[in-house]
């Protein structure tokens, strides 16, 4: 499967608790932290719901 790199670029402070929980569930704990996740419908739905807080790079090679 394809991989995507998700980076938290904006603080979730001041947003709904649900959005903060989604960022935590993706593995994003601090500003500018990045995770590499599988490109699944579940992950893409989470990313879509916090799209204003993150940047996404597709087709990332993981080592």
Provide a descriptive summary of the structure in words.
The structure is a single chain. The chain is of the alpha+beta class. The protein has one domain (3-58): Ribosomal Protein L30, Chain: A (2-Layer Sandwich), CATH 3.30.1390.20. Helix content is 30%, strand content 25%. α1 (17-26) crosses α2 (41-49). The mean pLDDT is 93.
Briefly note the structural class of the backbone: alpha+beta
Shape: globular
Mean pLDDT figure: 93
Strand content: 25-35%
Q: How would you sum up the major sheet? A: 3 strands, antiparallel
**Distance between the first and last residues' Cα:** 15 Å
Element-level helix/strand string: EHEHE
Count the E strands: 3
Q: CATH homologous superfamily - what is it?
A: Ribosomal protein L30/L7
Integer-rounded radius of gyration: 11 Å
CATH topology: Ribosomal Protein L30, Chain: A
Report strand order across the widest sheet: 2-1-3
Outline the low-pLDDT stretches: none
In CATH terms, what is the architecture? Answer: 2-Layer Sandwich
How are the SSEs placed, and which strands pair?
Layout lengths: L2 E6 L8 H10 L7 E5 L2 H9 L4 E5 L5
Antiparallel strand pairs: 1-2, 1-3
Helix pairs in contact: 1-2
